[in-house]
Amino acid sequence: MIYSRLGQLNERQLAIIVHSLFSGWMLSFIFEGQILYTLSEIHDINIDIMIFGGLAAFFLGLILSGFFVKSQKRARRLFLYCYPVFILISLPFFSEPSLLWTLGIIIGSFLAGNCVASWGYYLKSSTPKSEKIKTIADMIILSNILMIIINIATIHISYFLGLALSIVMLLFAFMFALKLPIDYHIDDSCESAESHVSIKSLLVFLCFFIIVITINSGLMYEVVNPAFEHLKWLTSWYWAVPYIIAILIMRNLPKEINRSHLLYVAIAMMGISFISFMCLGRNAISYIIIDTLMLGACGVYDLFWWSILGESLDFRDNSARILGIGLSANILGILLGAIIGNIIIFNNASSTNPTLLALTVVCVGLALLPFLHKHLSFLLKDHIYLKMYSEMIIEEQDNKINHIKKLEILSEREKQVTSRLLQGKTYKTIAEELFISENTVKYFVKNIYSKFNIRSRSELIETIFDDKN
Q: CB-based burial of residue 75 (10 Å sphere; 0-12 exposed, 13-18 middle, 19+ buried)?
């Protein structure tokens, strides 16, 4: 009955469910999850090296995924191979600590990084440009709800039950992944080389900003969370609640609301959170205040850069590389924050020091926001135009091209190529649609750029978008 209903789900729903079930296991277990921490307490072992090794392996998996997974077909194959491996990796944790634990965390984290990055292919193919933020939000919300369920089971009932639930989620993830479609028409060999420069500069600046902001997340794991360790009855379920609520609010904001203003609000929330940590006590009310501010801000920022990365997928064919590089910055920030936090703790520094450091990071993030907005605005403007253009029917697209005076200098064939460039299509796809070779397409593109004295697709978009005629 359940399996027969899988066929009724569309690609977007399947993509969300598969990745959420896998992420529920990942967040509650190998990614500094409560299962791992509970096991360390039960067996009285230090897992810091294991966790650091896992984060480093996860980082490498994100970075390297784009070199191995270059199509949606390979992404689906990766899921179907890795989910059973994750189950095997989880089984030794039912028994006494051994070398298999460390190997499992490191190998599992590396493969998990590959799976997270490879999900970009399904995010790109299953969701229209204007709806990506909702798909991402739905995935993050469902993942965290599943994580909360596992955490509650682990802490308040038994780690055995929590670990078993996480394995069940992997089984369901595998079952749903079998139904994921395969798009054999994705062009893996011909990426939009002309847009590389703009996307590369965007990613560099965005990654730097992500690293700066997520240093606070690393500090939170190492400094803030341990301070409320005695409130497990509360922290086991409330920790991610503000995060979920913030993402839910961001998801459902009207399109006319300028979300960039909320980034400043989130920065302020983060700063107030650390000030509150420095000034308030260590009781339940203090935890609720601090966690609500901190995790609410994290929710705003996580959805922000996830959605920007989702938008960027439309400019490159290798979705795993774009998503992997972007999210690796998040992990790098957490790693740096964790290292800094551990150094502070090792030196027996007071809680004031990490708080002041965190506030400094907040100030740096606040200073970077205007520059980030400037760099993103051009890409977003292009993307809005591409959305408007791609939603037109073919006749309307051709009509628009024919009525732009600036394009009168182009031949009919050059106009046809221009129209398809504006749709974000690759040279190979354009060649197939116009029944010409890729080299001929490149020849026409070179002529088009030469006539307008431009060098990239983004400049072509700007030329047409700003046309008043």
A: buried
Range of the domain at 443: 392-465
Count of helices and strands (H, E) across the chain: 22, 0
Mean pLDDT of the chain: 79
Dig out the tokens for 412 from the structure.
């009919």
Q: How many domains does one find in the chain? A: 3
155 vs 236: CA distance, rounded Å: 7
Is residue 24 over pLDDT 70?
Answer: yes
CATH number at residue 312: 1.20.1250
User: Residue 396's pLDDT band (boundaries 50, 70, 90)?
Assistant: low
In 178-240, alpha helices (H): 196-219, 225-227, 232-238
**In this model, does residue 239 exceed pLDDT 60?**
yes
Q: According to the model, what pLDDT value does residue 356 have?
A: 61
Rounded Cα distance between 336 and 212, Å, is 9
Domain boundary residue, one of 126, 155, 189? 189
The pTM is what?
0.75
Among the candidates 342, 370, 391, a domain finishes at 391
The two three-digit tokens of residue 243, written as one number = 């995060």
In this structure, of 152-156, 241-245, 253-257, 390-394, the range with the lowest mean pLDDT score is: 390-394
Type and span of the H or E element at 174 = helix 159-177
Question: In this structure, are 25 and 142 located in the same domain?
Answer: yes
CATH number at residue 157: 1.20.1250.20
If asked whether residues 257 and 361 sit together in one domain, one would say yes
Specify the CATH number for the domain of residue 426: 1.10.10.10
Point out the least confidently predicted range of 34-48, 223-237, 395-409.
Answer: 395-409
Same-domain check for residues 243 and 262: yes
Which CA distances in Å does 132 have to 20, 110, 286, 304, 452?
15, 26, 36, 11, 32
